[in-house]
Amino acid sequence: MAAPVLCRLCPGRRWSLAYINRGSRHETGTPTGSRSSGKRGQSSGVQQPLITAEKPRKGEHEWAAVVGLEIHAQISSNSKLFSGSQVHFAAPPNSLVSFFDASLPGTLPAGYQITQQRLPIAVNGSLAYSVFVGKKPSQLINKTVRIKQIQLEQDSGKSLHDDRRSQTLIDLNRAGVGLLEVVLEPDMSCGEEAATAVKELQLILQTLGTSQANMAEGQLRVDANISVHHPGEPLGVRTEVKNLNSARFLAKAIDYEIQRQINELENGGEILNETRSFDYKLGCTVPMRDKEGKQDYRFIPEPNLPPLLLYDSVSLPAGADPQQVIDIDQIRKRLPELPSVTREKLIQQYGMLPEHSLTLLNEAGLLEFFQNVMKETRAEPKKVTSWVLNTFLGFLKQQNLAVSESPVTPSALAELLNLLDRKAISSSAAKQVFEELWRSKGKTPAHIVSEKELGLLQDRETLEQLCQATMEEHPQVVMDMKKGNPRAINKLIGLVRKATLSRADPTVIKEILEKKL
Ligand SMILES: Nc1ncnc2c1ncn2[C@@H]1O[C@H](COP(=O)(O)OP(=O)(O)OP(=O)(O)O)[C@@H](O)[C@H]1O
Ligand SMILES: [Mg+2]
Ligand SMILES: [Mg+2]
């Protein structure tokens, strides 16, 4: 059946999405092409592809892959779009359904979805994101994907398949929940790129409070459109892999589909314009239904819904009732800081590497943890960054914990870094203290240092005696050192440190040893 149109955009004005993401301001990587050229369905040669599917052999044509996404994000709201039913994840099936949501007799028979598809709330935007290619930090590439449009629509119910009883059950809890659909232009070229763009959009939606965007809970679902073609030739026929709800599966599904299409075409087959789904157990895409070209959705306007009028301070009619109109400049003023801006500030303020700022924001709660450590420590920002991203995050990952579940508090880490900063402990002792902090919740770093006698040996006389004894025990090394072997001194420093259980400052030992010779 037909899908009515929800609303009408204010005539003569099309809203750019520039305010959703003003673009990455640290364009340090390889620049990407301009976004303005290229009609839909024509070559998107402006983008520098991250991968072309396979290195061509002599006499073979090169393939390029084209990926465009449709992203559906459930709008964070206590109620559905047009009914007062509540919205909760994992509520008992069919417990959050009003007559309207279920289209029970007496309400208009549905079988349609209310959508702004034809008159979207925003068009012609862009989303900037950075992709890592390879392992070196220098290989962080800044990219931009054009946003074709953003529209509001109703979510549909979901079916649950009971394979054992060969039954399909329907849960209408989701029916009528507000969805934000973001349609991206076919500017991407591999799974990794698509997954990174989706993660950036997810972070923006979460920062703005638009959607909780938890992919595992189905609050963010992606349809991936994929085609392959020879560079310079028109775009190929696309397939659409529906309802991907994890960034990893999205990347896998796309890369699988690119390879499948190339194999199919190389073997003389053809690509059908079909809808496919991703079998995450088998790691492959399988056909769902065929689209037979452009589907006719038979859109009709919804006469019961008044137009949604958007204005900015310039176009706002004098004397307009603030309750009746939406002034996007007012909304813009209330927007929180966007992730790209926060990252840029971290880079400017702390001299942080762009990839470190990315990691800090991509892990829920990690930025706040870092900032809280910074508040209480005198240690250099670089040192703090390294401890948070390597040691702390490493421990979390190893045990599969979220930042909020960490046994080490920001204050404890700050205190530890302060001990290190004023040379009360060595860096290897600091690692031991951290491990102990992780194991025994509630202990303070100072407590652990004194309990395990990890404090740095400061007593000059003791250190001198230790150096003397070590030199006497290892006359050969001393000889080597006298002969000018540069490695000999390091060997001696190592031996003295070992004798102190790593509790001596190597620069002090070096100074004493040099003096003694
Ligand atoms: N040749 C192509 N290869 C890959 N992706 C493409 C190609 N042409 C268009 N796309 C992408 O396909 C998507 C089209 O989405 P759109 O919502 O406009 O239509 P649809 O998929 O036909 O409709 P529906 O909402 O029913 O899925 C866009 O994300 C676009 O970037
Ligand atoms: Mg589609
Ligand atoms: Mg669509």
TrEMBL record:
User: What Gene3D superfamilies does the record point to?
Assistant: 1.10.10.410
One example GO MF annotation: glutaminyl-tRNA synthase (glutamine-hydrolyzing) activity
Query: What's a Pfam family this protein contains?
Result: GatB_Yqey
Main location per the UniProt record: mitochondrion
Record-linked InterPro entries: Asn/Gln-tRNA_amidoTrfase_suB/E, Asn/Gln-tRNA_Trfase_suB/E_cat, Asn/Gln_amidotransferase, Asn/Gln_tRNA_amidoTrase-B-like, GatB, GatB_Yqey_C_2, Gln-tRNA_amidoTrfase_suB_CS, Gln_synth/guanido_kin_cat_dom
EC identifiers of the protein: 6.3.5.-
Q: What does this protein do?
A: Allows the formation of correctly charged Gln-tRNA(Gln) through the transamidation of misacylated Glu-tRNA(Gln) in the mitochondria. The reaction takes place in the presence of glutamine and ATP through an activated gamma-phospho-Glu-tRNA(Gln).
What protein name is recorded for this chain?
Glutamyl-tRNA(Gln) amidotransferase subunit B, mitochondrial
Q: Which gene encodes it?
A: GATB
